[in-house]
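Instructor's aside before we start: the two examples that follow are unrelated to each other. I chose them only because their records fit on one page, so don't look for a connection. First example below.
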Amino acid sequence: MKIEEELNNINPIPVRTWNWLGVNDISIKEGLQDHRANSIKEGLQDHRAKYPQVLPGQKDNRFARFAAMSSKVGESRLWSSISYEGIGREASVQVLTRYNTGFYLETKPGEKVTDPVRISYSMEEGIPLIDNNAILVREGSEATIIVDYASMDSRKGFHNGLTRIYCEKDTTLTYVVIQKLSEESTHLGACAAKLEENAKVNYVLVELGAKYGVTNVQTDLLGKQSEAHMHTVYLGDRDRMIDMNYRINHYGRETKSGIEVKGILLDRCDKIFKGTIDFRKGAVKAVGEEEEYVVLLSEEVRNRSVPILLCTEEDVSGQHAASAGKIDENKLFYLMARGFPEAEAKRLIIEAAIRPMIDRIPEESIQRAVYEEVRRKLRNE
């Protein structure tokens, strides 16, 4: 596989618009990095075992299977049937053929697992992290998965990951992703999900790190009354580039979707949000809505939002909105008049805006870590 020095025209929007808007796709000055290519270049051994997942030390009886990803699983008919290019074809091919870590989780039919499963990936020593993950939620079961990406130090790193999800009938999955990579790292995160009748997936996505943060999430609501709800919070600082591309496709009758995004931008951050709800023919009485709100803390940030509704079915209901603004001066005055310093008053207002999203994380320890990271960035540390 040829490794390019730059990634061009990646994460494309479903329906192209005027080129001068700069939202159809993006290009970044970093290319795909490969652990095997580095091995040849530097004379190192294959790093396939460098990123072992944090999996249970013994068999977890709550699940039918919970293990490291293998080619036997990843290339099975079910997962091969999920056609999805994600951020870009080259990035997806790299994950599927050259991953150096990943997990496969399959629930038991009818089993409702109440305690979250946490999987942590910690980047270190500049070795690329390429993870291939799959989650199969069997009929009538429920589960919560938390995936945490972090850097052990401030060195430059590279992450390219793909998670494929399949939810059978009458299931509920909560899928949480926390991204806190170092400020010089590149993060490419993709996810594709398919839902059968009366299945529900709740996404909680937290984007706090990486110089280039590029994400793509596609959800297909295939079965009647299936649902997908996305809750995202992001903070962009310094010279970071953030590109989020979400798409929910309604195929089944009476399906529901929601995309809720809240963000904070400061310094010279460049951010693009692309949210698409697509009502396909046959999605009778489907309902979808999306909304983004971003707080702008600098005159130098670049904020672009593209909420899109597509429709080939008449009997549907869709809403979309995007808004941006500075901190409410009345709220700021109110708090400062009661003795709060300006910096503390701003922090309280910002945290109040994003709290509903962070509180959806099902572990308090992770919530506290996210709040601390937000506060650190607001202090420009």
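Example two begins here.
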Amino acid sequence: MPHQPFTGLILKKYSGFYYVQDEAGKIYECKLRGKVKKQVILTGDKAVITPLDEAQGILERVEPRQNELYRPRIANVNLVLIVMAYDRPEPVPMLLDRLLILTLHGGLTPVMVLNKCDLKASEKAADIMHIYKGLGIQIISTSAKQRCGLEQLLTAIKGKIAVFAGPSGTGKSTLLNNLAQNLNIKTQEVSNKIGRGKHTTRHVELHPLEGGGWIADTPGFSTLDLPEDLTSRQLGAYYPEFAPHLEDCRFQDCLHYREAECGVKEALESGQVSGLRYHNYVAILEEVMRNERCYR
């Protein structure tokens, strides 16, 4: 009796073979057939497979993608876990804002992971965390060393393809090793001199998680360049705290920059909008406007 084709998830490519998982969790080692050999096939792609036996198959075609990240090259990501540390290194608000913009502009869902909760946050870090907790983004506190918060993290990932993002030294590799079975990603201690660490993985692979979902073993957004199609008029939408004050802006297309009678700037003066977030917004807005002039 011939084996019936099925649609599975590509977990990795290795030595010319593609490893595809079916709905039951079984993994097939697959070769390519015909025209599909000319396609760029990515980890995270959904592909139609014809099994040859219980362990091998032929990859017949790739289904259309929902999205694609370029660094690393991975398809159909749903969730971006933005990892910051309570301390060593302290959270960097500008980096966090850029990661949130990249995530939201890509149509992905961000979750903030505050790792190293076993450490006492500095006063500066505590103030930063207080600001971001008011944005309506899911925040999960974890300790990779003490293995706390992992169940909540697994629940957030369930049924989704997730990638970690964030600066080195925040514990992403240790979190990955704790979440995924049989995974041993190398980590490097945080440098005393520069206060940062280094992630050493190079190849992207999806690891199935207990309870459902997959995690990529290579951090997403290894470049923080703003998207070329991000416009100055779009940027404010990625600052949700601006929304309640838009009706107080005199101009419908207000950029909350140099315009008079701006509801957002009035909210800034009254303390309803964070000065830290607003100044990050202005810096990013000016960068976007420079890009717009370059691309004209």
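The CA atoms of residues 145 and 174 lie 8 Å apart.
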